Amino acid sequence: MQVRDTSDHEAYQPVRVLTLRHEGAGSERADAVAVEAPLEVRIGGKPVTVLMRTPGHDEELVTGFLFGEGVIADADDIISITRPTDTSDTEHGNVLEVRLMVSRRVFDGDRLFYSSSSCGICGKKSIASIEVRGTPSCSNLTVSASTLSALPERLRAAQPTFTRTGGVHASGLFTADGALLAVREDVGRHNALDKLVGWALERGDVPLAERVLLVSGRVSYELVQKAVAAGIPIVAAVGAPSSYAVELAERFGITLVGFLRASGMNVYAHPDRITA
Question: Which family does it belong to (predicted)?
Answer without folding.
Answer: Belongs to the FdhD family.
